[in-house]
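Quick question: what would this complex look like in 3D?
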Amino acid sequence: MFALVDCDAFFCNCERLFREDLRHRPVIVLSNNDGCAISRTREAKELGIEMGAPYFQIRELCQKNNVAVFSSNFSLYTNISARITTTLRRMVPQIEVYSVDEAFLDLTGLNNLEQFGRLIRKTIQEHIGMPVSVGIGPTKVLCKAACFLAKKDLSRGGVVSLETPEMQDQVLAAMPVEKIWGIAKGRGTKLWLAGIKTAKDFRDYKNDQHIQAILTKVGRQIQDELRGIVSFPLCERSEKKKEIMSSRTFGRAVFDKRALMESLATHASEVAQELRAQKSVCVGVSIYLRSEYDGHSAQWHFQTPTNNTFKIIKGALRCLEMIYIYGIEYQKSGVSVFSLQDENEHTLGLFETCDSARERTLMQTMDRINLREGNRILVSMSCGVDNREWRMKRQFKSPRYTTSWEELPKCL
DNA sequence: TCTGGGGTCCTAGGACCC
DNA sequence: TCTGGGGTCCTAGGACCC
């Protein structure tokens, strides 16, 4: 048996720890540039503030209802998270820290699990002051389902156990399929089309091959977990990240290449620092730019096995340079980039005219969206990179494969 | 005017090899 | 004009998570 310990409205409750006066007030925490709400307390949810709601749309609502609004403070949240982890480690032999606000616990050998769940809840509340919900079950997916109910149904006191088949039946039958851990909109729609609407429908669906076909291996694993068969064992996560990214949207439109270079250098050194902290060496760097303005993006990769800040910055800047050259080359050669849009002006894809591979993609996309006669398709055109309004999203990534110097020859 | 940032895993398909 | 079979490795892109 496992347990999932999941903090309630984690970022908000971190802020509340230092503000007694906020205890009963609605609180939200905003993303970078105060763009949108990324954490809401129950009181804020009740006001109708959705996850990811743009702040400019809810500002008035917040003012009217005396909502306490915070910009995010990630170093604080990381610190609180570490304290919770330490407390949990004292209570069970093995835990897997799944994210900043969640951990799975191995409950093997324990009795009275529901009671133990309540003890965990009480301990974290007393030691740190953080409210948590606990879900207990034979697999991680079932723990998640239990936790989902623990958060939703307050009468359960924040702890739900799915130890018995009867409880599993009851909870899964009331759970829409897209609420299952690992099933979101994309997979949810596919299941819906197969007539599978609840978690119980999914668990009891007999045609495993069909699930394999529409949801691939992951879908089958999730289905097994719902049946109580462990597909995702508890694992102490490797401290070594496979990719390290630093990215931030600009607060305002950026046209200036120098400004891009400067912020790229800052990101590059952040990434390099983290890379060395985990004693890794990157295989290369890549950068990714996207203009929210017209949806165009550009990326470039550069192979450079290093952990040296200077070299990483240089690599990133070189990528940027290549993007500029690449863009300008496009203009010179007269190649146009077309974006295909539907009648609502949603971009369906970007295509170049003189590339057969892209043309194939275009055809496939046309097939996929099932063009019917009478559909209005807008084709807009743009080319080049320079003078573009780079507003969104400049990412700097160390590559997928990070390793130690000793292992380096293997990945070259 | 204003919609985050950081990750993981899987698959398809291309390039390449014998 | 015809055009094997089997394998590996890599990458882009999709889907999902918090």
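Answer marked as accepted. The domain at 77-226 of chain A is CATH 3.30.70.270 (Alpha-Beta Plaits).
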